Amino acid sequence: MTKVLNYKKYHLRDHPKLRYHGVPTWPPDWGGTYKGHDLIPQGEIGILRNVEKIDANSFYPDHLLLTVEYNGKGYTGGLWIEDSEFLEKIFDLLKKNKGKKTEEIGKMEIW
Known about the structure:
- The protein has 111 residues and is of the alpha+beta class.
- The protein has helices at residues 84-96, 102-107, and strands at residues 10-11, 19-20, 23-24, 47-54, 63-70, 73-79, 109-110.
- It has 2 helices and 7 strands, in the order ββββββααβ.
- The model has no long low-confidence stretch (mean pLDDT 92).
């Protein structure tokens, strides 16, 4: 008897494993240096410039640190994922897609 696995594709932004304690983590909350008149960017903004895997320490679990460029400024945001295998999968995917808009990345279909 052959077992058929039924995998469902999701847009990255909607994937059920992109959560931390039940809260969606895509897109990250962006941070950076701000002046009094600057608006804090939100959502799928800018172009992905870098992604780093941050190893767990006594304060935080493993997570990814994304850097984007938006309106000529750099912003960073943490991407928290509870499933360590899925974190590695997303890390590899994001490394391969540096230079793309975060909106495009959010639309990518993944298992």
